[in-house]
Design goal:
The protein folds into 3 domains: 86 residues, Uridine Diphospho-n-acetylenolpyruvylglucosamine Reductase, domain 2; 112 residues, Uridine Diphospho-n-acetylenolpyruvylglucosamine Reductase, domain 3; 111 residues, Alpha-Beta Plaits (2-Layer Sandwich). The chain contains 9 helices and 16 strands. A 5-stranded antiparallel beta sheet has the order 5-6-10-8-9. The longest helix is centred in the N-terminal third of the chain and has 14 residues. The termini are far apart. The structure holds flavin-adenine dinucleotide. Flavin-adenine dinucleotide (FAD) binds next to strand 3, helix 5 and strand 10.
């Protein structure tokens, strides 16, 4: 055990200054409501060998293993009492197999990093909407990515995984090898039975013209807006994602306070096709008569908020 410990970038609960342990325990957790759960140690893995070593150490110590990719689990599932927490935030791997049209990533790769990497390759992955979510946690729990209702769950694009089993063995899992683990990787979420070290993902051709149309209403109109969206969605154009969420729009000239929006984001290969799809959105419910159109951009090559700026958009309509 001593040798194993010497090889690992490990922070023990009782051996270090409290600040260092605290940072390792929750520093990368998105939710700032911190859990009162205390792992025995945190391994800050930067390579696959660290993961193998950490799992074997946990076996020797007889304690549980928990894992963290992007830290965006709202319930902070990665933080478990007396566990060896394996944090893969420092482990970075990304490569594209052009012949097989497969992208191979380490699990802490974020949607932003992947979208940036693929942006020059004419392909895309149906990743999550928030740029900083780890693809690992997103994929294991199913993954509601771009246009999920029409294109399917992101986890359906998992071609294979590499993972470290509970006995500390690194295995490759796909439709013909370790099928049980491959099956579980597509929906087991925090209940997954190993620690994933790589995902092999199918990619799809990207779109040259991605446009959106957003309708924003006072939140008091939520019933009308949701009824409208629910009625349209089942039969609307299949390359258009429809999302309705509550928001407080920044700098909205026509509305202030809580609002409800309906966003139509269409993925097409010509400007004309994109505009035609958006023009076919049935007439929005109006509270009064005022409609204001602002902000039109022509060039939307990346179907994601890749750089933390505003999402791709074309027309915003405030209905006041
Ligand atoms: C702001 C925000 C926006 C979101 N947007 C979307 C969205 O558009 N679509 C969507 O579907 N979801 C979305 N989610 C939910 C998100 O996908 C899940 O919370 C997901 O679990 C986060 O993944 P993570 O890797 O960042 O989190 P982590 O907390 O790092 O990981 C989540 C859990 O996955 C398991 N895990 C982590 N690493 C490993 C490993 N190496 N091996 C095995 N298991 C492991 C662990 O149980 C871990 O606790 C969003 C969440 C937030 C906070």
């Amino acid at each position: 055990m001593g040798t194993l410990q010497n090889e690992l970038p490990i922070v023990w609960r009782h051996d270090v200054e409290n600040g260092i342990y605290e940072e390792a325990r929750v520093g990368r957790v998105f939710n700032h409501k911190r859990p009162k759960r205390y792992p025995r140690a945190v391994v800050q893995a930067s390579e696959e060998a660290h993961v193998i070593c950490a799992v074997r150490l946990a076996v020797e110590l007889g304690c549980r293993v928990s894992a963290r990719f992007g830290g965006h689990s709202w319930a902070a599932w990665s933080v478990r009492d007396d566990a060896i927490l394996i944090d893969l935030g420092n482990y970075h791997h990304i490569e594209f197999d052009e012949d097989k049209q497969i992208i191979i990533i380490s699990p802490s790769t974020t949607g932003k990093v992947l979208a940036d990497f693929l942006s020059t390759k004419s392909v895309m992955f149906y990743g999550g909407h928030c740029p900083d979510v780890g693809l690992g946690g997103f994929l294991l729990q199913g993954g509601m990515g771009w246009n999920c209702k029409n294109w399917g769950w992101a986890c359906e694009q998992i071609a294979a995984i590499d993972c470290v089993t509970a006995k500390g063995q690194l295995v490759h899992c796909d439709a013909t090898h370790h099928q049980d683990l491959y099956w579980a990787a597509r929906g087991a979420g925090p209940g997954f039975l190993g620690v994933v070290t790589k995902f092999y993902l199918n990619v799809s051709p990207s779109y040259s013209n991605i446009l959106s149309s957003t309708f924003i209403y006072p939140v008091s109109e939520y019933r009308k807006v949701l009824d409208w969206v629910v009625k349209i969605a089942p039969s609307f154009d299949e390359d258009t994602e429809i999302v309705s969420v509550a928001c407080i729009p920044a700098g909205a000239p026509a509305l202030s306070g809580s609002c409800i929006l309906a966003n139509f984001l269409t993925f097409k290969n010509s400007d004309e096709a994109a505009r035609t799809a958006l023009k076919s959105v049935p007439r929005a419910p109006e509270k009064q008569e005022a409609v204001e159109e602002v902000d039109e951009r022509e060039d939307f090559n990346k179907p994601t908020h890749t750089d933390g700026r505003e999402p791709p958009r074309s027309i915003i309509t405030y209905v006041v």
